[in-house]
Amino acid sequence: MVKKQTKKMSSPAGSGGGSKHPGMMDSRPKTAGNDGWGKVSIGVIGGSGVYAIEELRNVREVRIKTPFGDPSDALILGQLEGVDVAFLPRHARGHRINPSEVNHRANIFALKSIGVEQIISVAACGSLREELRPRDMVFPDQLFDRTKSRPSTFFEKGIVAHVGMAHPYCGELSSRLYQCAKSLGFSAHRGGTYVCMEGPQFSTKAESNVYRTLGFSVIGMTAIPEAKLAREAEICYSSVALVTDYDVWKDEPVTVEMVIGNLTANTANVKRLLKEAITKLSRPRGCGCAQALRYAILTDRKLIPAKIKRDLRPLIGKYIES
Q1: Residue 125's beta-bridge partner residues?
Q2: Residues 6 or more apart whose Cβ sits within 8 Å of residue 107
Q3: How far apart are CA 41 and CA 89, in angstroms?
Q4: What residues are paired with 197 via a beta bridge?
């Protein structure tokens, strides 16, 4: 069951949460997915430094209870360039949740429950290649998992599913975002492997050099299990990886101050990208993301617990009756 609560927003989803949100309008109560909002098909997950989209209009804050607990924060629903968007700050407003603590299952489930079909994931990353410079944007096409202890599936406790992850990012969504970034004149790169480490500490020099030897492009702490869960939820998923530093392989010290300074510079650019791209994302979903579960659920339907069927209805409802 998904429970929803809405309230009027009195402040933005900013790092301090104290100033007025310029898009706040219309105090009539609305709930996500119905009662006035309809289907919100585009979700944006904001990473370090991206805690708000100030140009959202008709803003509503929706708190959703999921079978996997609470999401990182309320979903911020609004309209960007006339398009309905759901925004979620991954680390919560004020950056209160570290990468290992993020409840990715609740985040993705909440977005799925309001009808999201495409997720733009904004994340800070370190560069493992000379040509990927700090303040560049990277749209990776591959993932390598170096996390250790993060729940990475919705399907457990009586139901088993194996979805394909050969191509973890949606090629169609990533291509559209990349083309928009280039049209805006940003230094953008298409393709490459994002290696996801556990964190919250940065890499050792030995780790960084090994990742370079393996041919990886960027390193971050949040794409896993986010991408895996998005695939299980049949949501198109793309990362906008914002390069903040050269990790530690380049004999340049990596400090939080350096990372935040570069990320702050990137934040304005990624918000321009979102504004430019948001009206160009509507499309018939012919990609494999939209049918990822079609043959993935292996459990005998008669043996799936009734509670699991009810809890996972937003994910499996089109394949299995609850």
Answers
A1: 243
A2: 45, 71, 72, 88, 90, 226
A3: 17
A4: 146
- 281 vs 118: CA distance, rounded Å: 9
Distances (CA, A) of 15 to 49, 247, 320: 8, 25, 41
The answer to whether the bond into 225 is cis (omega within 30° of 0) is: yes
Strand partners, 45: 88, 121
Catalytically active residues are 245, 247
**Rounded distance between C-alpha atoms, residue 22 and residue 55, angstroms:** 7
| pLDDT tens-digit map of 142-185 | 999 999 989 999 999 999 999 999 999 999 999 999 999 999 99
245 in helix, strand or coil? Answer: strand
CA distance 14 to 89: 9
Rg of the chain (C-alpha set): 19
In Å, how far are 60, 109, 233 from 222, measured between CA atoms?
26, 16, 17
Please choose, from the candidates 165, 114, 96, 170, the residue with its C-alpha nearest in 3D space to the C-alpha of residue 140: 170
Write out the H or E segment, with its range, that includes residue 230: helix 223-232
* Residue 242 per-residue DSSP state: E
Instruction: Give every CB contact of residue 322 below 8 A, 6+ residues apart in sequence.
Output: 306, 309, 310, 313
pLDDT tens digits, residue range 295-315? 999 999 999 999 999 999 999
Name the region of 191 (left: φ>0; alpha: ψ -120 to 50; beta: rest): left
